[in-house]
Amino acid sequence: FGQKTSIRVGAMPGLDLINEHLASQLSFKLSQKVGREVHVQPKTTTNQIFGRFLHGLDPPIFISILRVEPTQAMSLISIDGDVMYHILEGFFGGSGDSERPYRNFSPFEMKVIDRIMDVTREQIELSWKKLDNSFRLVLTRWENQPQFAAVMPLDETVFLISFAVEVGDAEGSL
Q: What is the pLDDT of residue 23?
C-alpha cells in the first residue's frame, strides 16, 4: 500500500527478440515511407521515473499518446526533433542536411509526422502481438511539448524501451 515497485526487465525473456525484430521492421518500413534510409537499432530497456523521462525530452519533439488495449494502460512513443526535422526535410525534397530550426512543427508537418508515427505504431503493435494477440495501441492524442504529455503521476516508475534512430547525419532516439 503506497509502495512503489520496480518492473523487472529480466522477467521478459523474449523482449530482446521482439525489439530486434521491431528495429528491423521499423528500419524497412520507415525507409519506404520517407524515401531515404532510416536505421533503427535497439538501445536500452530500463525502468525510469516518469517525470525524469519527460524532463529528458528536448522540445519540440513529437509524442504520440496511446492507450494500450486490452489493459487500458497508457503508452508514449516519442521521436527526437532533430531526427524528425531531418526526415521532414528529405520527405519534402530537401537534401536533409540543413540545421534544425528551433520552432514547433507546422500543422502540415504534423500531418506528415502523424503518418510516420502510424507506421511506427503499427510495427510496434505487430511485434507485441507475438506475446498477446489482443494487443492494440489506440492513439488518444499527440503533443510536441513534453510537459503536456503527463499521462500519469510524475513519480511513477515506467518501463522504457529506447531505440537509436539514424537518418542521414541526424541521430536520435525513439
A: 93
Phi, psi of 130 (to 5 degrees): -65, -25
Q: Give the C-alpha separation, 100 to 88, whole Å.
A: 10
Instruction: Give the DSSP per-residue string, 5-66.
Output: ----GGG-TTHHHHHHHHHHHHHHHHHHHHTS-EEEEEEEEEEEEHHHHHHTPPSS-EEEEE
User: DSSP code of 4?
Assistant: -
Place of cell 518492473: 7
Residue-level pLDDT at 92: 76
For residue 152, count other CB atoms closer than 10 A to its CB: 13
Question: Which residue in the block uniquely carries the three cell numbers 532516439?
Answer: 173
Residues in the chain where the model's pLDDT stays below 70 = 1-13, 60, 95-103
What integer pLDDT is reported at residue 52 of this predicted model? 92
